[in-house]
Predict the structure of Antitoxin HipB.
Amino acid sequence: MTLEEKLAKVPVENNFFSELSEVDIAYGKLMGKIAGKIILERTKNHLSQEDLAKKLGVKQSLISKWESGDNNFTFLQVIKIFNKLGIDIDIVFNPQNQYMQNSISPFRFTMPQKTKTIPSEDVRNILSEEFLEKESAIA
């Protein structure tokens, strides 16, 4: 008998999550999405749990707990983890009722990316070069 056949014979209660509230289910889904993204990006970057732990300054066992759902993260931890993995954080808030869905577009919150600061002298040089090019084109 294959594993699939054995699993098919296991009795499962029809309403497996009946004791969980909608909030508990939503929270579990959110934590699962975050854990899944960490696993995906970690493996895409060819990092072991130990490698990621060293980058974050934590123990490998904590990475394992995060990925398996045995330990939940704070938003600060998520930001640090995603930053080290080079992941942009994009949170979408969608209205729950039909009236709100039709009248208001979803709110998006995106973490700003780091920008490069250009020294003021370089800016002046760039602007003066553009000005000189425009002046010579007019003449």
The domain at 3-114 is CATH 1.10.260.40 (434 Repressor (Amino-terminal Domain)). The CA atoms of residues 35 and 67 lie 5 Å apart.
